[in-house]
Amino acid sequence: MTLRLSDVHGGYGATKVLVGVSFGVEPGSVVALLGSNGAGKTSTLRAVAGLLSLTAGTVTVDGNDLARRRPCDRPADGIGHVPEGRQLFAGMTVLDNLRLGAYATRRDTQEMLGEVFALFPVLADKRRARAGSLSGGQAQMLAIGRALMCRPRYLLLDEPSLGLSPMNVDRVFETVVELARRGVGIMLAEQNASRALEIAQVGHVLDQGRVTMSGPGNELLGRPEIVESYLGGASA
Amino acid sequence: MSTFLQFLFGGLVSGAIFALIALGWVLIYNVSGVLNLAQGEFVMIGALVFVEMRSGHDLPVAVSIVGAVAITVAVAVVLDIAILRRLRNDQMVPMVLVTVGASVVLREIAQEIFGKDPLRTKPLLDGDPFSVGGATVLPHTLLLWASVVVLVALLTLFFARSLVGKAMRACHENALGAQVVGVSPQRMRTAAFALSAALGAVAGVLIVPVTSMSWNGGTALGLKGFVAATFGGLGSLPGAVVGGIAIGIIEALAAGYVSSAYKDVFATLVLLALLLARPQGLLGASQRDERVGGGLVPRLGALLRARTVGGARDGAPPQRAVKDGTSTQGENT
Lengths: 236, 333
Description:
The complex is a heterodimer.
Chain A: E1 3-12, E2 15-25, E3 30-34, H1 41-49, E4 54-61, E5 64-65, E6 79-82, H2 94-101, H3 109-119, H4 121-125, H5 136-148, E7 154-158, H6 166-181, E8 185-189, H7 193-199, E9 202-207, E10 210-216, H8 217-222, H9 224-231
Parallel strand pairs in A: 3-8, 3-9, 6-7, 7-8
Antiparallel strand pairs in A: 1-2, 1-4, 4-5, 9-10
Helix pairs in contact in A: 2-5
Chain B: H1 2-32, H2 39-56, H3 61-83, H4 92-114, E1 130-132, E2 135-137, H5 139-161, H6 163-173, H7 175-180, H8 185-211, H9 218-232, H10 237-257, H11 263-277, H12 296-314, H13 318-323, H14 325-331
Antiparallel strand pairs in B: 1-2
């Protein structure tokens, strides 16, 4: 039972953005992807979501190869995605955004709505509000909630703390820990390296499309080269 | 007064038909970004199949309507699945060109099957014409208006309530987000083609007793629908309805008071003037749309929008609607 990338190569047209990325995400664990802008964090998530075409290598979910699955098939395969920029349906209500989150599975919608509202009570209060009217923190909660509606076994989170107030960053990271405790495997791409490594069982550092360093979160947190490269300005 | 009313009613007949065709354009455009230039051929196929079944084979009206809609939808679905799905999703120009090709092929096939002469059938409702304020109205005209109102209401419900309708809106709102939640853009485009073919076929069924239809009669109607959709703001469903009716009325008044030779000129002139003053169309969304500008046309746009969005619901008088224009505008994006 693993989400596994094996020697994944991929890019957009002639531009190579991933060069042999391999690692796995176990259910109930948090795997942090670190690296500077353009290192390949988002591309790695997009490869799992099917939004980046692979030129070599495989992505498997619990043993099933995803090569022939279209992006829109992957929520049904157990992959929830909180993409870069959230990609909410701004003109639609919070409730409609969440209902559409269950579009792929179309079952247990009411039950999952209850779970998401329990996790993020503010979304229940704002259920009739347009997604475009939410604050940054609320929008991030909605993006996570929408991804949870299909009961994913693995959740891809792209920069969930970006642009949020410190209090909201805390909320988001607490939620990530809680979701992992419930058995969801989390792939977390983060600029905020110190916060990500605090909650991650494993961290991988990406540079120019390759994994250049890997290790348990607390161990990476202690390495001087990590502190120097990623923790200096990233804790804001 | 009665002359004016007669022109107005005539305009409302063609306007209602333009509105259905414009809705078809906007549906496909919103979901997939494709401008379907075979839209008018859907109207033509619906009309000719209907006449053939009803008058050629003496089938009941209901059966003929269902048959016309089913065959038109089948043609649209085959066009999408057999050809458009083979093209790359991100390249619009080849797709639009394919729809141009499809419209030519469909016309030729229709000419083979139905012949060159225009076909016509009896009105759907028998009965004597009656007079409204001195102007004559046929029972069929009332049925036509009622059908369009019901269809627009059903479509509104479909987009507001059903999950598939919301998924189609989601493709328009945020294509990437739609894929992320598992909405297939290809399937939604097929659904949009089917729905818009159904609207076109119904337009054909409703108009063929009024004006007759021939193998090449759909193209002009299809383009009129496109003008109406652009007039209303390409992408806005209420705009398509308002645009259709507006173009219909402008044409009818121009034909009545000036000359029927100039009706297209007037419709196009008004469209040009509108687009110069308001590039996004009457109810189209844009950055500028967030506030109501000082010009007459933006104000008119705000007024119409307030009436179509809020006014239709609670019957707010236009004066109040104008004051609420800014807030009401936000709701419709």
